[in-house]
Amino acid sequence: MFLSKNNKIDDVKNECEKIFEDLKQVTLCFTGHRSQKLPWGFNEQDNRCIEMINTTKEKIKQSIIDGYVYFISGMALGFDMICAEIVLEYKKKYPHIKLVCAIPCKNQDRFWSDEYKNRYKKILSKADVIRYITEEYTKTCMLERNDYMLKNSSKVIALFNGLAGGTKSTILKAKKLGLKIDIINVSFNK
Fold this sequence. Notes:
The chain has helices at 5-24, 47-65, 79-91, 114-126, 141-151, 166-177; strands spanning 27-32, 70-73, 98-105, 129-134, 155-159, 180-184. By secondary structure, the protein is an alpha/beta fold.
């Protein structure tokens, strides 16, 4: 018995969907506040920031041990970039893991200081995948980036202070989608 052309296409489509679901099960993304919204601001030498970084390292390492391979960072200043750097650090010990940078628009760093632009470019130069959501900035490109990360993940590691904003919105969407959510609790007090 011969399969019709449509059956072959359906078979390929089903196989692709299965592969996508399998990849999603070993993919996680990060969401968290930008440096400006953190009590330590841009001072990554602050004890609260160091505590957050150490906790994040533990959670990423445990995720690697649990079988996660793909780590998606939205590459915003603050938590996103710190997570990307931690993943790159772990790639030395776990070369099978991959850093995926989901960037809302090609000129995301246009208003950043030279120091942060250089840090951003260094991360991108070592990333395994760079995915630009839009060519230019739009009012929705950050939300579209967050949706892309959630759609392609089964778990979220979040740095969240409980207040309204992009991080809260992303966590609420992740809950609706049934993703595992691992929230990092650190002191947000001054």
